[in-house]
RNA sequence: GCCGCCUUGGUGGAAUUGGCAGACACAAGGGACUUAAAAUCCCUCGGUGUAACAACCGUACCGGUUCAAGUCCGGUAGGCGGCACCA
């Protein structure tokens, strides 16, 4: 019998055709079967096409899903397109093409590339966020948020990208620059739609306890939400500062996490934007200075503010003072931009002895430092330890620990009615407006009489009007404002003339719920049928990039939890399990980018070594969760491995069963590969298969049974060539993907003999073969009677023996 | 500054979680086949050392626990990621 050369391109096309014709990977409607919903982040179809990073995540979950199907699960492994967004719109502006056309071209290209790689996606459930039948439900969800009071319009200062001319969420600002274009971000007051994600802060933290996310993701989400417990305390502010009876008294509430240090508060700081600064302007004797400082602070971008974090600046509000409520002491009031208007109450009590920032500030401006927790050396630095230390100089708190003092002072404040325990979060509400064309229109109408009125649900989708000019207006408004035919409408409530909202939703909108749509992608009456959601949700395994931890992953958890509270979805969490892949770097070890010229194109690699070898290398190159540089040579090595698998056909005997010579190896391999796939240790699974192949070549032959096991195990990684070998040699009536995942017999794994190390005083002196299955006593007995060991122990007195069955024996001698 | 992770041959990485460090590859060197090259196959491949063994050293560095440490504990240095004046 002679064999053809391994020719990936024809084999891969052939099997992709068969899978498509057979609808091999479509999820079944049979809800009686156990389900498995595997998900990878659907890509943004950029004009550059797929890069080698995409297939890392895709192949990993493709392996898991192919294995699950063979294990008998009803598997849903869908794919779609997160297609709204800026790059497409910018490309459209530059080239005078409608973004919808660009999107279609890009999607077609991406789809071809993904199909080329042989992923077992259920293409019948493909979704596209720019499809009106899809974004109809994105709009519908927004309306539910609006009706529930979680969407509001606000003219708070927002992050404004000077280059994209678009408002950004906090999450989209990286080092003071726009996450997308790298442009300068400044604070600008704009009227924007906001979503109250802060209402879900606690639920988003608590929910983490119920899901199986990698720890890193949980930690990052918790830090981002930034829950802190402390107290709000009312201080009285008096003016003028001279005279026995102040003309004005007003109340300022401060937030602190250290109410225990109240006796150490020697001054107060307001953020420059604090409203009291304006209200008391009349009494502030150095108001010119104050106004100048405010103007300077406002001019600084957030980035500049952070850059200057080390040097504390500020201005004392002369002419007024605050009263420390705990002892009636008069303390000065300052404004400084180290106090943020957007966190807590925008005002703090400053305790320089026990807060590093306050300490720096006090040192700079020569303000009193009063130690109230003993244990540090406040002449050198602030003492901020809360575990150690005893209260001093603190009246009724003296002698208590920090924790005890906290409790007492809060009780005292509550009794006096001037303070209470308070929880704060770093998480900010989500800026949901974009002054852009290529996004979902926000389905609201503004009516002079009725205010903001939702577009009636039966009128959804509210489609994007066809326009020709996609650039923003000169004052940074959405291009939709030019489309007066569309903007001018009637109020759905009172019927009078009204205007549509021209802002669109951010890219995160469509991706916040797409996994739900996969359960029932063609539904025209609901975002998905309840029974379908009830069967498929939650997503059993979601793999993606760490960069989405505080963006997409948090946003979609928020939407899901809201929908759950509304009774729209059946589960409290969207994703049962979350894993993350490491980034693939260029061959020079740097991040792949066009400007660095180190981008590897999957098309070229697949043309050279085939999709199966490409997939194998993506999984073999290193630990799945670590960043790894690409190596063209390494990829070729994986092709060599598949060549050797291919040529193993020539070494196949007529024996149908697993061969006696390889029996323990085959069973061991089944166990190893099965376990490793589940742990995403694809590199060691493939290494084990390579070792098995090497063993088979050394032996000179394999049985048909040996080959079956190997091909089944390798199939999820290299699905095309394994099917081809299987079919060409009639190894089964069914293709591999319809066979059951191989099982192993634990007893069969054991070899007759195993090599163990013999140590004397912990140093390896010899290696001996011992019968397998011996316990510690048996191993010791056997070893002591072994000639080589006898020789080693000759003339020595054994003090102690440690035997680890199957591994080693250690003689402690004198 | 805070939180988290990491550091093993020339390179990517293994090591059943405390039990034979360097699996499996890549690169390199040598050999076979070939007129030659490619492909393929075989051998060598942490360091010192030896004719070859032996022996000794070796998982960033210093110290500790243990019969036994890449793995656990304490400290130091370097790198990566996230947050960053959040009171």
Characterize this entry briefly.
The chain has 814 residues and is an alpha+beta fold. The chain has 27 helices and 36 strands. The longest helix has 18 residues, at 99-116.
Largest sheet: 5 strands, parallel
Strand line-up across the major sheet: 2-1-29-30-12
How many individual helices? 27
Q: Which stretches of 5+ consecutive residues score pLDDT under 50?
A: none
Work out the strand percent: 15-25%
Count of β-strands: 36
State mean pLDDT (0 to 100 scale). Answer: 91
Give the proportion of residues in helices: 25-40%
What does this structure look like?
This protein has 814 residues and is an alpha+beta fold. 35% of the residues lie in helices and 18% in strands. The protein is built from 27 helices and 36 strands. Strands 2-1-29-30-12 form a five-stranded parallel beta sheet. Strands 13, 14, 17, 18 and 23 form a five-stranded antiparallel beta sheet that branches. A hairpin with a 3-residue loop joins strand 35 and strand 36 (808-813). Helix 19 crosses helix 20 and helix 21 runs antiparallel to helix 22 (682-699). The two termini are 65 Å apart. The relative contact order is 0.11. The model has no long low-confidence stretch (mean pLDDT 91).
């Amino acid at each position: 019998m002679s064999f053809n050369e391994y020719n990936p391109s024809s084999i891969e096309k052939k099997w992709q055709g068969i899978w498509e014709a057979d609808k091999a990977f479509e999820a079944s409607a049979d809800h009686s079967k156990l389900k498995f919903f595997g998900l990878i982040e659907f890509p943004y179809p950029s004009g550059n096409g797929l890069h080698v990073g995409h297939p890392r995540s895709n192949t990993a979950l493709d392996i898991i899903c192919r294995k699950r199907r063979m294990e008998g699960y009803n598997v849903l492994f869908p794919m779609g397109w997160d297609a709204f967004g800026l790059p497409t719109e910018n490309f459209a502006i530059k080239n005078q093409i409608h973004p919808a056309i660009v999107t279609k071209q890009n999607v077609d290209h991406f789809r071809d590339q993904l199909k080329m790689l042989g992923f077992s996606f259920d293409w019948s459930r493909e979704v596209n966020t720019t499809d009106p039948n899809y974004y109809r439900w994105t709009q519908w969800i927004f309306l539910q948020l609006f009706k529930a009071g979680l969407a509001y319009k606000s003219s708070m200062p927002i992050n404004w990208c000077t280059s994209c001319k678009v408002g950004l969420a906090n999450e989209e600002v990286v080092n003071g620059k726009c996450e997308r274009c790298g442009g300068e971000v400044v604070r600008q007051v704009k009227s924007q739609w906001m979503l109250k994600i802060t209402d879900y802060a606690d639920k988003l933290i608590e929910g983490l306890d119920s899901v199986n996310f990698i720890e890193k993701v949980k930690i990052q989400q918790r830090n981002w939400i930034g829950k802190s417990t402390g107290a709000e305390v009312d201080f009285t502010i008096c003016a003028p500062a001279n005279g026995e009876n102040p003309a004005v008294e007003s109340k300022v509430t401060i937030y602190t996490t250290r109410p225990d240090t109240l006796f150490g508060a020697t001054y107060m700081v307001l953020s420059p934007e604090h409203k009291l600064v304006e209200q008391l302007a009349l009494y502030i004797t150095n108001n010119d200075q104050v106004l100048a400082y405010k103007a300077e602070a406002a001019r600084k971008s957030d980035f500049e503010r952070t850059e200057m974090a080390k040097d504390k600046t500020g201005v004392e509000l002369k002419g007024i003072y605050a009263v420390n409520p705990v002892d009636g002491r008069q303390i000065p009031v300052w404004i400084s931009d180290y106090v943020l208007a957007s966190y807590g109450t925008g005002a703090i009590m400053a305790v320089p002895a026990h807060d590093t920032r306050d300490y720096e500030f006090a040192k700079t401006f020569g303000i009193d430092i009063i130690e109230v927790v003993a244990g540090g050396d406040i002449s050198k630095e602030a003492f901020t330890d809360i575990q150690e230390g005893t209260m001093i100089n603190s009246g009724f708190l003296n002698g208590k620990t920090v924790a005890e003092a906290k409790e007492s002072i809060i009780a005292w404040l509550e009794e006096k009615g001037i303070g209470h325990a308070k929880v704060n979060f770093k998480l900010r509400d989500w800026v949901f407006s974009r002054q852009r064309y290529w996004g979902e229109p926000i389905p609201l109408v503004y009516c002079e009489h009725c205010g903001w009125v939702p577009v009636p649900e039966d009128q959804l989708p509210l489609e994007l009007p066809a326009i020709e000019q996609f650039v923003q207006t000169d004052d940074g408004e959405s291009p939709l404002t030019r489309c007066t035919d569309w903007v001018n409408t009637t109020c759905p409530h009172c019927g009078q003339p009204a205007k549509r909202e021209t802002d669109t939703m951010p890219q995160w909108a469509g991706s916040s719920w797409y996994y739900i749509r996969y359960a029932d992608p063609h539904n025209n009456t609901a975002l998905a049928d309840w029974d379908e959601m009830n069967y498929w949700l939650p997503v059993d395994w979601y793999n993606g990039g760490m960069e989405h931890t505080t963006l997409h992953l948090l946003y979609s958890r928020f939407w899901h939890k809201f929908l759950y509270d509304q009774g729209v979805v059946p589960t409290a969490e969207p994703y049962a399990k979350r894993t993350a892949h490491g980034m693939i770097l260029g061959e020079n070890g740097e991040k792949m980018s066009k400007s660095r010229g180190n981008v590897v194109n999957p098309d070229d690699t697949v043309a050279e070594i085939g999709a199966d070898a490409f997939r194998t290398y993506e999984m073999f190159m290193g630990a799945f969760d670590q960043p790894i540089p690409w190596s063209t040579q390494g990829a070729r090595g994986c092709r060599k491995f598949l060549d050797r698998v291919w040529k193993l056909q020539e070494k196949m005997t007529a024996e149908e069963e697993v061969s006696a010579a390889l029996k323990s190896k085959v069973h061991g391999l089944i166990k190893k590969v099965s376990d490793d796939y589940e742990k995403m240790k694809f590199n060691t699974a493939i290494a084990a298969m390579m070792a098995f192949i090497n063993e088979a070549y050394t032996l000179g032959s394999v049985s048909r049974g040996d080959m079956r096991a190997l091909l089944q195990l390798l199939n999820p990684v290299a699905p095309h060539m394994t099917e081809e070998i299987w079919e060409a040699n009639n190894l089964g009536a069914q293709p591999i993907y319809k066979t059951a995942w191989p099982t192993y017999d634990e007893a069969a794994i054991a070899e007759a003999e195993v090599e163990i190390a013999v140590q004397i005083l912990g140093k390896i002196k010899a290696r001996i073969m011992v019968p397998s299955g011996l316990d510690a006593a048996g191993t010791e007995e056997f070893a002591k009677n072994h000639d080589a060991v006898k020789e080693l122990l000759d003339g020595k007195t054994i003090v102690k023996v440690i035997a680890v069955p199957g591994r080693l024996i250690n003689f402690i001698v004198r």
